[in-house]
Inverse folding.
């Protein structure tokens, strides 16, 4: 990691610190262009917004998908205080961002949570694959 990338990652950690000071969950992220220009910053607002999807990584992925063309998105790097959760990872993948750099891994994060985080919800299926494939078949071609 370059000194400029370390500076940007430290800024993400600072956003997380400020978020916690302001009563939000302690997560912060920023999106930078290839030359290191900060394009947008965000912090977690799940509690304030009463929106379980108000993670900073998801906010930045949405912003990039809405505001950047695919080539510009692919040239960005997201710097984030913690490794993105599966929800955010899916959004990041779909938004076409170039890369993600995080300060704290998911495993390290889980060790800081009593009980290790949220309980897993059981999922069952596939239950009707032949019927469910009909509306999807051909959509991606």
């Amino acid at each position: 990691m370059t000194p400029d990338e370390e500076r940007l990652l430290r800024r993400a950690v600072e956003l997380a610190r400020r978020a916690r000071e302001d009563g939000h969950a302690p997560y912060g992220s920023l999106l930078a262009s290839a030359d290191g220009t900060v394009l947008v910053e965000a912090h977690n607002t799940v509690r304030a917004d009463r929106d379980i999807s108000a993670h900073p990584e998801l906010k930045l992925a949405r912003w990039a998908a809405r505001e950047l063309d695919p080539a510009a998105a692919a040239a960005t790097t997201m710097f984030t205080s913690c490794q993105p959760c599966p929800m955010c990872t899916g959004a990041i993948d779909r938004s076409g961002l170039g890369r993600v750099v995080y300060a704290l891994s998911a495993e390290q994060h889980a060790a800081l949570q009593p009980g290790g985080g949220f309980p897993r919800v059981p999922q069952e299926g596939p239950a009707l694959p032949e019927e469910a494939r009909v509306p999807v078949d051909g959509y991606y071609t």
